[in-house]
Model the fold of this input.
Amino acid sequence: MTILGMPETAVAPLVRAVAEAPDRAAVAERFARAAWSRVVEPGDGDAGRLVAENGAEAALAALVARVRGEGAAGAPVIPPSALERWRPRVDAARVQLDLRQAARFAVSLVIPGDPEWPTRLDDLGEHAPLALWVRGDRARLRALRRSVAIVGARAATAYGEHVAMEAAAGLVDRGIAVVSGAAYGIDGAAHRAALAGQGATIAFLAGGVDTFYPSGHDGLLRTIEQRGAVVAEVPPGVSPSRWRFLQRNRLIAAATGATVVVEAGWRSGSINTAHHAAQLGRPVGAVPGPVTSSASAGCHRLLRESDAMCVTSAAEMAELLGEDGVGDGVAPAPLDADRLSATRMRLLDAMSTRAGRAPEQLAAISGLAPDRIRAELGLLELEGLARQRPSGWIRTVAESAAAR
Amino acid sequence: MTILGMPETAVAPLVRAVAEAPDRAAVAERFARAAWSRVVEPGDGDAGRLVAENGAEAALAALVARVRGEGAAGAPVIPPSALERWRPRVDAARVQLDLRQAARFAVSLVIPGDPEWPTRLDDLGEHAPLALWVRGDRARLRALRRSVAIVGARAATAYGEHVAMEAAAGLVDRGIAVVSGAAYGIDGAAHRAALAGQGATIAFLAGGVDTFYPSGHDGLLRTIEQRGAVVAEVPPGVSPSRWRFLQRNRLIAAATGATVVVEAGWRSGSINTAHHAAQLGRPVGAVPGPVTSSASAGCHRLLRESDAMCVTSAAEMAELLGEDGVGDGVAPAPLDADRLSATRMRLLDAMSTRAGRAPEQLAAISGLAPDRIRAELGLLELEGLARQRPSGWIRTVAESAAAR
Done:
């Protein structure tokens, strides 16, 4: 039996080194998706549609045939513009090399239908990734089901890194996974704090997971690999590029339940991640900061120009998931003004803690009717907030301290 | 002729010392409104309705008659509960004293219909003030027509005071008056910066304007009196109280085109001002700050729980008035990603500034079709962003510096 013209016995071991593939169909599907992730740039809608309509294997077979100048009646139709884009990269040897390279780095291939596949990615429709290359235990991708993306500037301030760490620590305390892009600054702070809190954390890279980028985060990414997962939609060997960074951002936004931007310059990749999240209907949070800090300008821009919610704590970030922000201590009390009726406030204002006053005097001072005053004084006395002395009514010190 | 039972010749000089009153009717109206502002607490809706329906003089005459146990058929009806509230304060001698005291402090009385009356206050309906006691040139109240309230915590941080000063300076630079409550902290910083910028600034006090409160701001309030105005709806001699502070906040919100909260604790009078503004349909701005600062917690609460707009500069505060935030330098450029088409970004990503590459090579690297690449390279060459060398196409350094 052959798979895309190659003997199954040659292809199967390569595939089985990176994925479970019990039969020919599974081997072919996985090989084809690995090939597609090499042939197209992330987010290629033509490829997404073609694979969705025909399956990865049939779609790839049609592409290979067209590249060879062969055409079969009834075969899937490759759009001419897409054919021109894909043709230079159709290379079976290259895909075999990708699979070997993946096996060498203990990378596994996860595709739609696998139990670990993050089904939220399917919301991307024809722009969904065709496969994920995962370094670390693929089972940990399940943590994405309850996850928040914490993203932000590489040029973060100490304030931003502090907030990212508090946020990540508070989220993993609540059993929520922290997802980010492993960049310097906010991303790194979020991953580190999640790891320190013994929580789940997942890094999405713009380039292949065989190369940990940025190199200064090699140690961090090794730890994430051991205790979380490092994920890319491009195969090993692909370098990061601006386009791939933007497409990686869409993955972070799509894979998580909510996206929080901690610090971001006015033009920032994190703003791009937030826009992706908003387009997918995912809640977006923006952490405010000093208006004097350009590192917070992008967050304030999101608060002004989008539906982003102002978030100031892990509890508020957890709320973005539609969960209660439980575990963050007591709920704040309402305003004084809400608690104290206007009548009571005006009466207490008119009373002294030392000079006793008659109800008539209190009426003149407060502008309340004497009958109302007498009734309210009775209540205040019962509550221990007022006392009657020979000289008249006084306010007790307790009320003074509590309500002022 | 008599006015409320007193000889006109006795009343007129008192009134004329604080307001223009060319005839008996004007004298009576002003005296009656002065009296009402003594009898009722700020925001008394019963008084507002009664005066709106009957005029201040007739309403007061009816009240006086009822207090004396007289009743005239056809006279305005005083609600019994209101009568009980007002009765202890009905005292003609006290009103005459108020007017004398006002004259001594060069306070003028401004009432609805006067050219200086801030007509925005009428939006308060039956809770509008019945008169304003103004220290400083009453003509300066006209500056309220284009004004922003800057309010905030007394326990402000250096950050908050800095932002308040920048905001006030930027607003008066645009010819917008700065209104606040003369408290320590944000209020004081806003007034001071407005004065430093030679701008209009108006302070609303919770107590009578004969006493400058807080006393530590005596010098500041004297300067505001000389160059702006100090205003209260209660007559001279009335002390501030919690209730009157809250009602003063409603005046600040109502008198201005927009309210900006610079720093505020979770429970704060400034939140109350913002709620008043929102209820009146006035735009509210909240200045973000560090989430680690409790002084910004109230601002973040407004951003989360109300329609308050995040504002980070005087230009954005001016925009709340529906004006362009002109004068704050150039508008920020759009995101890089917006400016650069996806094709161009992917092609530039694939090019090197040193190694020449053929279009076919660039196609394989970028995942773009070779024809598309050739067309785009032509455009890039025209724009000086790419150059053809014997070895192939390179990206020019200028693009590299500008777009990265």
